[in-house]
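Figure 2 data, in text form.
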Amino acid sequence: MKKLKICFAGTPEFAIPSLELLHEKADVALVLSTPDKPRHRGKVTPTPVKKRANELGIPVLTPADVNAPDVLEELSGFAFDFIVEVAYGKLLKPGFLALTPQRVLNVHPSLLPKYRGAAPLVWPILDGETETGISIMLVDEGMDTGDVLLQTVLPLEGMTAQTLHDTLAVDGAEALWRVLSDYPYYFAKRIPQTGPHTYAKKIEKAMGHLDFTQNGEQIDRKIRALNPWPGTFVLFAGKRMQILRAEIRPKDNPAAPAIVYRADETGIYINSADACIRILEVKPEGRRSMPVADYLRGKPLQVPQTLD
C-alpha cells in the first residue's frame, strides 16, 4: 500500500517522537521548522526537530514566514496527503491550510478545550488537575480551536512538567498515527470544541519564587509544574537556590512559615501555611544540582533562618 505523503511542521524536543514514528510508517517528504537562532552562549544552532530531520535524511525548510506566497507556492508542488503540526510555534493562515484542506492536523498536549495556548504541560499541574492528555485536532485559523478527532487521557498524580512532557510526546505520536491510519473514521467522528475553555498562558521566570505562606499542596504543585523550566527557588541571604525535589510532610515544629528550622543530611525543613516542606535536592546559584546532604557538607545552614 502506498505510504501517506506527509509534511511535518515542528520545532522542540516534544515533536521528535511524532517525527520519528511518521518517518518509520509514512513518507515524510518535508519538514518545516523555525529558523536557526542563537541558543547556547550565542552559538547559532538548529532546532531539535531540524537536527533530527537532518539525521534522518529528510529535507528541511526553515522559513521566517511560512505563510508567505513564495513559501506556499513551493509547498504546493509536493501534493502532500497531510500536514502534521507538533509544537511548530507558527500561526497557520488560510492560504497554508488550503494546501491540504481538512487534512492539517495538530498534536496538542491537553484535553481541549482546556489549556489552549503556550504552556499546556505546566498549567494542569499548577491548577491541581487530576488528569490531562492528548488531543489530535484539525487546525483552523484560531489558536487550538479546531475540531477534535481523538483524545487520550493520562492521570497526573506525582508528575513533573518534564515527566509529563516525555510521556505525552510518545502518547501524542501514537495517537496521531491512530488517526492517520483510519482518517475517514476519525474525521466522521470529529467533535467541535464547545463550552468553556481555558488558556495556558506563557510561563515567566519570576513565577518560580516559592511563597511559603501558601499551603503545602500549592507549593508541591509549583515545584513539579515548573520543573525543569524555569525551576522553583528560594533566597538565602540574597542567593538563589533552585529547588529540584521536595516532600510534603505534616508539621512537626511550631516555626512560622518561611523559617528554616532544621537542616541536616535528611533535608532542609521549612514550614508552609499548613505543612512542612522537606527539601531533598537543590541547585545552588552557579553550581551543579546535588542532594541536600552534599550541599550541607560544604555549606552548613544556620538555623533558625528566615528566607528572603
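Caption note: The chain has two domains: 5-200, 205-306.
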